[in-house]
Amino acid sequence: MARISLFSAVVGLATTVSMTVLAQDYSNYVDLPETDWSLAEGTGGELVETYCTACHSVAPIVQHPGFSREGWEAEIEKMRKRYGAYVEEADVDALSSYLTTNYGTATSPHWPANATDIATD
Questions:
Q1: Which residues, including other chains, have CB under 8 Å from residue 97's CB and lie 6 or more apart?
Q2: Where are the membrane-spanning stretches (predicted)?
Q3: Which residue of 56, 71, 85, 105 pairs with 66 in a disulfide if CB–CB is 3.0 to 4.6 A?
Q4: How many other C-beta atoms lie within 10 A of the C-beta of residue 30?
């Protein structure tokens, strides 16, 4: 008896969930244009590709408002210590130099070329 009740409850729940999903109005959804979140050219970009994109895309770097050199060094250290990111100690200086030069507080944000068009459409 308990098995039949459990089975009925599961079937009822599955039916309710599927009906809810099917009843949703998707007309308010918007197709966003593709953007090119690529890294700035320069010495050290390959280090970002090697180390940073092993865990996440370049979007958090490119979209970020920027850090000072000390901020980028702290961010790299946080990724290493808190999240277990593998970054060779010998590459930390070059990595933070690249990030500061290309994504520092004075140079950010680095939006894709079509970002202005996207924002005003």
A1: 44, 69
A2: none
A3: 105
A4: 5
CA distances to 11, 12, 20, 88, 104 from 4, in Å: 10, 12, 24, 58, 63
CA–CA separation, 16 vs 7, rounded Å?
Answer: 14
Q: Quick check: 87 and 48 in contact, CB under 8 A?
A: no
* Rounded-to-integer distance, Cα 15 and Cα 31, Å: 29
Structure tokens at 69: 């050199």
Say how many residues make up the chain: 121
Over residues 58-105, the pLDDT tens digits come to: 988 988 888 999 999 999 999 999 999 999 999 999 999 999 999 988
pTM summary value:
0.62
Phi and psi for 23 in degrees, rounded to 5? -85, -5
Rounded Cα–Cα distance for residues 71 and 86 (Å): 19
Nearest-angstrom CA–CA distance, 112 and 116? 8
